[in-house]
Amino acid sequence: MSRLLALGVVVALALAAAAAHADTHPPTGELVAEHDGRRISLPLLSMTVHADVLGDLATVEVTQRFVNPTETPLHGRYQFPLNRTAAVFEMEMVVGDERVRARIDRVEVARQRFETARREGRAAALLEQHRPNLFTQDVAHLMPDQPITVRLRYVQTVPKQDGAYQLVVPLVVGPRYRPRTLSHPLDAGNPATVTADGWRIGATDRIPAVAGHDLPSDAVGPRVTATARIAAGMPIVALDSPSHRITVTRPSESEDADPTATAAPAPARGEIAEVRLTDGQIADDRDLVLRYVLSAPETQAGLLAHRDRRGGFFSLLIEPPAVPAEAEISPRELVFVLDCSGSMHGLPIEASKAFMRAALSNLRASDHFRLIRFSDRATEFGRSALAATPANIARGLAYIDQLVGSGGTEMTSGIRQALAGTPPTGAVRLVVFLTDGYIGNDHEVIALVQRRLGAARLYAFGVGTSVNRFLLAAMARAGRGFVRVMDPTEPVDEVARALAARIDAPVLTDLAIDWGDAPIAAATPDPIPDLFAGGAVRVTGRYSQPGTHRIAIRGRSPQGPAELPLTVTLPATSGPDSDAVALIWARSTIADRMHRLTAVVPTDDAAETVRDRLQAEVTQLGLDYSLVTRWTSFVAVSERIVNADPAGTATRQVPLPRVAGVGPTAYGPAGAGPGGFKGQATPEPGTGAALLALAGGAFVWLRRRRARAAG
User: Fold this and answer.
1) Among 57-71, 473-487, 566-580, 668-682, where is mean pLDDT lowest?
2) What are the Cα distances from residue 237, in Å, to 212, 275, 407?
3) Which class for 434: exposed (0-12), middle (13-18), buried (19 or more C-beta within 10 A)?
4) pTM (2 d.p.)
5) Is residue 652 a contact partner of residue 686, using CB atoms and an 8 Å limit?
6) pLDDT digits (tens, 9 = 90+) for 32-56
7) Share of the chain above pLDDT 90, in %
8) Domains in the chain, start-ordered, CATH in brackets?
9) Which of 20, 35, 277, 563 reaches 20 to 30 Å from 288, CA-CA?
10) Which among 326, 256, 249, 242 has a CA at the least distance from the CA of 289?
11) 3-class secondary-structure state, position 691
């Protein structure tokens, strides 16, 4: 019976894809199956993203439009990513001609308001955060032929990386391997989601599929439209996208000038760029990445400030100075840790190998190296660090060439192995971690790095088209290193060589700011991360009084102490264009508190007290600044009752596509074939109902087919 049920699920999913492709113009994103002669559909989604970029700050609007293509009411649930630094400060729901501005509230209060609205038959939307980059949107009472539109707005910083600003708009949630036990309290509550081909996201147990059956990855078609406007205040000398085809227009001065404006001059040509997708719409199966380079005087620090009724806020961007090369190069122990789990099977593992070939070829004669691979467990090439001799490098390359991606993602085993023991005498340990970050125990991993790092440094290299950037950035922060991402669907040899050559010590360490007599408070992050070449560090804070002050940024370079004196002006008033600075400070402070909270594992009453205090601070910041956090949510409820018979309305997941470059084995059943994840999770009630309905439809179809064949 179980085999029949499994076969039924596969056939139902195959039917869904076939039905979607059979229509000349199928509804985008529809999952369709046959059940007792009728079509079963899950909610449809279309999404529009627009980014307004001012220098290195971006305000992004995401519009999600949910449609119910069935004849009966549905509740919808959509799991989606946002940028890991996103400060979500506004939400609006539109139902027919009714616009409802969402209200921020404590998560339990917001959930209660949503459930009450659902029982009463009112349209409602609830936005909850599960990770800084992972959210769910619950939509109540999607009525036939009455779409519900939800608009989100968030601000974020645009980081400078390798000399260029990089704006990343995540579009899809990858699979998540979850160990059988989640030991960190912050790792609880990661919901499961359904992809368009039936695979479940966020869980590793599901109704098993027939071994070897390759389901289509394009059951969800293009449904995302994206545009951007970059106003740099200085010439934009380069603008491209390594992820998608884009069309760039440069408005002339006359096109942008306001003929009635007299206070400020119009922007010069080259200071503004407008971006749209060349293909119109894209599938949400990979991150959208924009890179731009500005022509500006060589500066090492820049200040943005904002003041309103709440007080003053500032954002200080610090870039590393040009320093001469070290006369004496310290010996290094390079520890390479490769994720060889099922989600890395195929293109990602091949990209990791390309990186490793470049990295081993760039080793210095004074270096030692170690090679560690992990999936269900960690194993190491050799019993100790090997000297970087030509013979040892050749042996290492041969070992790398035979690696494959399969099994689970027990990342903690790789971290423990990498940070065990001591490096060779006089060598600094540099750990290079290559992974897509597709795990559900993010905080356990981050806390482990915090506890075991010692004097080492850890660099997180993401491999994939939509990696878990929150995890990778947090690992790099805890590891006093940096994070970089390689797209395995693009030619990676050149990228791998460039990244491998950059694994080295930072330009400035032990950074501190002497604020002098400036009235500065609540500066974050604390401590300030080290500065690496081609990057930057942002410090945000508050000020109590306006004025001009002399400050000093101090650190330690390879040649000794370094200092950068700087004059800063804290304004008495500021315009609306700078109000994002206050939100950036609040979001940065929340991230700082969450970073501290990750390190606090409850062991006694004192630890619980610290946890409670940090959670209370995060919650209050969310309420005070109208920001979505782990403990604050947006909820919007319509005044009208749209469903006169709300009882019995089913919840359906909005389907997601597979991540580009990630094979079906990453989503496969526990232990089935190469890449089959192992682990344990409980299905969402709505997910189980949907899959059972699909299985039932397939079973009926099979019986009818057999009857026709017998006749």
Assistant:
1) 668-682
2) 49, 15, 45
3) buried
4) 0.85
5) yes
6) 434 445 444 568 899 999 999 988 8
7) 60
8) 2-287+631-697 (no CATH), 332-501 (3.40.50.410)
9) 20
10) 242
11) helix
| Closest C-alpha to 288, from 201, 196, 166 | 166
- 151 pLDDT exceeds 90? yes
Condensed to tens digits (0 to 9), the pLDDT of residues 274-288 reads 999 999 999 999 999
For 525-631, strand residue ranges (E) read 537-543, 547-557, 560-570
pLDDT level of residue 301 (50, 70, 90 thresholds): confident
Residues 6+ apart with CB under 8 A from 116: none
User: Are residues 551 and 516 in contact, defined by beta-carbon separation less than 8 angstroms?
Assistant: yes
Residue type, position 630, single letter: R
Q: Residue 704 and residue 697: Cα distance in Å, rounded?
A: 11
CA 85 – CA 665 distance, rounded (Å): 30
Torsion of CA 317, 320, 321, 326, to 10 degrees: 170
- Torsion angles phi and psi, residue 592, rounded to 5: -65, -45
pLDDT in the model for residue 205: 31
CB neighbour class for 663 (10 Å; exposed up to 12, middle 13-18, buried from 19): buried
* Cβ-count burial 502-534 (b if 16+ within 10 Å, e if not): bbbbbbbbebebebeebebeebbbeebbbbbbe
Strand ranges in 571-631 using DSSP code E only, listed in sequence order: none
| Cα gap 400→404, rounded to integer Å | 9
Q: 300: buried, middle or exposed (CB in 10 Å: 19+, 13-18, 0-12)?
A: middle
Taking a C-beta distance cutoff of 8 angstroms, is the pair 675, 345 a contact?
Answer: yes
- Beta 457-463 vs 483-486: how paired, if at all? parallel
pLDDT for res 329:
67
Average pLDDT of the residues in 295-307: 78
Position 129, amino acid: Q
pLDDT at residue 3, rounded to an integer: 39
C-alpha to C-alpha distance for 570 and 545, rounded to whole angstroms = 8
Burial of 589 (0-12, 13-18, 19+ CB in 10 A): buried
Q: Which amino acid is at 429?
A: R
